[in-house]
């Protein structure tokens, strides 16, 4: 786990004075253990463990900040160069199957001088080219220099666990692990992208494809690579190297699927435990995190010092302390817990905004940050987490509508009725027409679906958005829901994994963990796990009784305490957001009335203030829009962002 950055001046020239140190310093939290730089000049590589580039012409600058996880010695230092001097790499992440790849590469004549995964990755790319990427099990963002071809290759892992951003200015092209490092490059501007502002305010969506919330700053999409010629450093269009096929189907019994999933999961956790530093886990007491800590205990044996870190919501409706304690006791884990309050949110919000670089969807991101702070204070450098399990296994309540839509679309009325009845009985499931209306909406053509949205108060342009401002800038209101026939749950999971939910959650987790120099690992997110789960029949994911993660619950029997496998509520790191903002109402009022708010024309401030006033007295239902208004305004102020138009 590290931070990487680079700069290609164009035409060939010199790196702006102090740029290397500034970009590196802005990523120091990602790699406090070591740093290095590489300069390519006149076709020759100069690689050394300092930050100031050599004087004179420069064709390429590569920077690296190291968080030492595997091979803690200087032999694991980056940038790293092949013995023949042709290839050089800076790399952020972990390649968990590096031992197996090293054995295979030794058969091809490669000799290794370190025990690091970086040296194995560099050799694999030199040996197999881009085809090496699909041989990897891990998380990665990398920049590979090919001196002979005079090109730089940027690549990002299958799900986008590790970040990689880039921007082009009149002086050249820059890339970095975090946007804040790019903002140090002359010519990179702090202007909000209006389409991104719309998607965030309307849907809470921030990480989508190759775009960011900043105009002119792009990211390498998950499972893509970008090639940049050194002599003409304009990036080509990102090219996909791996795809999760939503149409693949697996034919097997439920019991066989559970057995295979158990094996895949335990194999993945075992790989994710490879580390030369202490390892812990986030623990909410839910099925996913409990499965991880129980697997860690089984694989590590009784001698493993197992550390877990949990969050307490401070509200009986969302507090999971008894589940955390149950899971920690069963796993024999030393568990530390944090209980932040609303004033903590206000006091730490600026630091959180700085860490995240872009707005975030809810205050649960703050709760997650507090958990990683706790792990950092305990001296843990690697933490396993259950991110991705809900998107693979239908864990969120919203997926019930997609499952119901599949049954209705197939004319399986009796099964649909049973599912609906059971769903209404779930904790927080309520009743009424919300769930069936959502399901019907997924089956309608887009035109009819958009009309239905208006009838139920879900307009594409609510009154608190400044429709004229968006129209003037050419932003077209859009719906994220995918309608049509077929397996709607499968389509919803695929969309969440590749476009909506997961990319955001991974960004939140990476920045929150790295803010405290912690490597976060997500064993649910391997190509093997994703391909297997997405190919299963829908009723293995959400069964006829509306039980989510049905096949995984079966797979974990005998490993996870039965009380946790029988849980039907869904909480996670939920915060009492409405109660917090009620407590902080004077602060919210100040944010919505301040000078920074007036610089955000995307929000119709009178309409927003009126809505907030009615929410406070109970005349309007609470939803996340209030937080999004506040967060966007504070982001504009803290990051010095300007709005176009």
Structure in words:
The strands form three sheets. This protein has a seven-stranded antiparallel beta sheet with strand order 3-2-4-1-10-9-11. Strands 5-6-7-8-12-13 form a six-stranded antiparallel beta sheet, covered by helices on one side. A five-stranded parallel beta sheet has the order 16-15-14-17-18. By secondary structure, the protein is of the alpha+beta class. It is globular and about 70 Å long.
The total of beta strands comes to 18
User: Residue ranges: pLDDT <50 for 5 or more in a row?
Assistant: none
Over the alpha carbons, how many angstroms does the gyration radius reach?
Answer: 25 Å
Major sheet description: 7 strands, antiparallel
Spatial ordering of strands, largest sheet: 3-2-4-1-10-9-11
Total of helices: 27
Summarize this entry quickly.
Helices cover 41% and strands 15% of the residues.
What descriptive keywords fit this protein?
645 residues; 18 strands; alpha+beta; 7-stranded antiparallel beta sheet; 6-stranded antiparallel beta sheet
